[in-house]
Amino acid sequence: xxxxxxxxxxxxxxxxxxxxxxxxxxxxxxxxxxxxxxxxxxxxxxxxxxxxxxxxxxxxxxxxxxxxxxxxxxxxxxxxxxxxxxxxxxxxxxxxxxxxxxxxxxxxxxxxxxxxxxxxxxxxxxxxxxxxxxxxxxxxxxxxxxxxxxxxxxxxxxxxxxxxxxxxxxxxxxxxxxxxxxxxxxxxxxxxxxxxxxxxxxxxxxxxxxxxxxxxxxxxxxxxxxxxxxxxxxxxxxxxxxxxxxxxxxxxxxxxxxxxxxxxxxxxxxxxxxxxxxxxxxxxxxxxxxxxxxxxxxxxxxxxxxxxxxxxxxxxxxxxxxxxxxxxxxxxxxx
Length: 335
Description:
With 335 residues, the chain is an alpha/beta fold. The chain has two domains: 4-152, NAD(P)-binding Rossmann-like Domain (Rossmann fold, 3-Layer(aba) Sandwich), CATH 3.40.50; 158-188 and 219-275 and 289-334, no CATH class. It has ten helices and 15 strands.
């Protein structure tokens, strides 16, 4: 059955994955964005407009939609304004939110009922968690039980523009001795953007509503399986992993998550980012592809680019090569 889909955004990473998934299903897809992104699917119609300019939203009220998918991370008031126009025009609304909406630091095993940050649906700005939570409130106010809040965990996969998995792949491609942050069996939790897109569309059509923590089950991958997958697809012959204890990494002043993307040591204040309760989403049909597939497909995409895309509003992650070598030498000497 053909469905009509409106994607608010749709030119980068998760939005791109949603558009591609829907077009591949034969859906009628329309995107609404400023038209400044470097990518547009030839099988989708584009409406040009600016979420921050209420006067440009009028085309959203000219048609009816089976599903709306929204990836907004800006001021909540913009989501409030567009949701008000779409409330009588769309049957279902899926908001790609984030597990960062939970009050910090999040507890291990956070469920959808875990307390969230304070936020307003009328907000003009603020930190990322408050903007995402305020947008949740704005959309829920307009759509009620027709709204689904997909609180995504760490998102990886082709077209990533944050630079986490792409940094590890680039590091492996340089070869040599690679600092691997331990312990090797550290369990990870993440979601491939394509699996997130598939869940968003399936759950909307099935009539699910409310918040869902959308990520793989804890341990779907480990630091060992992730880095070995990266090494196997991107590392030249002789590339080797040197596992370094978290204590030695901390002593060197290296920051988890930013300088060593994806990794959080077991005792980190935010270690729960790899330990959310995702039972509800999996019961509703979430399926996650193997880490080896995510890594290989990301490397295949990345290999065709001159450089990985990086969002301008974020500092690029990664570890300086000289600091990496110093920590490895220190760790090997002490061993």
